[in-house]
Each structure stands twice: as C-alpha cells, then as structure tokens.
Amino acid sequence: MQFQVPQFIETEDKIIGPLTLKQFFYLAGGTALVLASYFALQIWLWIVVSLFIIVIAVGFAFISINGKPLPKILLAAFNFYWSPQIYVWQPEQPTLPKTEENVKKAGFSLEKIVAGMALKNTWRYLQTGSKAAEEPKPEAAQIKTKEVYQVFHEITGERKIAKRVDYR
After folding, report:
1. Which of 23, 37, 39, 69 is least enclosed, having the fewest CB within 10 Å?
2. Is the predicted pLDDT of residue 117 greater than 60, yes or no?
3. What is the pTM of this model?
4. CA-CA distance, 160 to 152, in Å (whole number)?
5. What is the spatial distance between Cα 127 and Cα 91, in angstroms, rounded to a whole number?
C-alpha cells in the first residue's frame, strides 16, 4: 500500500495573493495605524510616525532570521531580558591559581591519586576551589565483590569469556 506523505509542511499557505495571513494582518495593521495617525497628527509628525510604523510592519511581515520570524525573535529577546537570570554555578574562588602548594593543601598526593581515593573529588576541587567531602573509611574501601566470568558467543560464532559486571 502506498501513502502520500505531505511535503513542505513548515511553509505557510499563501492566502491573500503572495502573502500569508499573518503577513497580511501585519501590513493591514500598519496601514490602519498610518491612516489613523493621519487624522490625529500634524503633517510633519505624521510623516515621521508613519515611516516608523511602516518599517515595523514590513519588518514583522517579511524579516526572518535563521528561519524564525521577527516577532518570535523579539518575544524571545523580551522574555530573556525580563526574566530573572539564574546562575547555576559560580566558583567560590575563581582566581585561585593551580599551583603545587594549593594542590598539596587540598590533600592530594600521587599515592592517593594512584589508589583512586582522590579522583572522585579532584574535579570538584578544581572547579570550586573548596575542599571536597571527607574520604571514605579504609575498611569500606577494602570490601571486594566476587568476580564472575561468563561465556558468550560472538556474531561469528566464536566463544569468548568476559567478566560479568552487575550494577546494583
């Protein structure tokens, strides 16, 4: 069975001549404002105001940046500047130099790094400049789980043995 798949679904329909309905309303609204201001303002002020209104109406109707229409961009900019700015992360000591003295003061040594004890906290220290949480007790670190190996078949049919890891 064949089905017709609609194409060009993102393009708006041209309803009024070469204009979409939105474009027509933007231009009609601008024209209405220009005509209303003709009867309310003096001629020199009307020319200045009408040029401003025409530029805005044509911009709203025809300008799109990166495929987004100008009203959507202006609305997004307005929401960005009027909504509160939330900074998720800010280092406690942003100008802390990364010297050997600062690293030693944080409690990092080659033995701890090789043993894997300091690796969990290294990234946090480098980002925030503050000391990480206390290290776990050595008794808890020495508990080992039983290693289990399992035989499996590859796609080619060859048998292989691999260490089984169960995450709990």
Report:
1. 39
2. no
3. 0.48
4. 6
5. 6
